[in-house]
Design brief:
By secondary structure, the protein is α+β, with helices and mostly antiparallel strands. It is built from 3 helices and 5 strands, in the order βαβαβαββ. It is 31% helix and 21% strand. The strands form 2 sheets. A 3-stranded antiparallel sheet has the order 1-4-5, covered by helices on one side. A two-stranded parallel ribbon has the order 2-3. The chain is elongated.
Length: 118
Amino acid sequence: MNHAGKCRHLHGHSVKAAISIEQQSLNDQSMVCDFSEIKECVEAYVDQYLDHNFLLHKDDPLVPVLTANNERFWALDEHPTAEVLSKMLFKHLKKTGFNVSQVVLWETASAYASYRED
């Protein structure tokens, strides 16, 4: 919403995520953590909130139309940019117990956004 570029038009993305987890020492399996645990956590979040869902800002004029037509959508407090989505995934991983240090979302081979807390 209110963006001057081509992203002002309705569109979607398929993204790849790069997730960095930090630990001070390795576990008893000589790993920071098992990649499959991260994958399960991320896939559950994507399936529940993002997959086949329409993300938009809470003030978007489409909200009443989507509501009236019983369409699935998620009205966010922030614009659903790659930066915001990487922050959302970061917060979810942190909340579920991973010591996540950064989440990077790749929209294309050369365009990405990342989120970390210092």
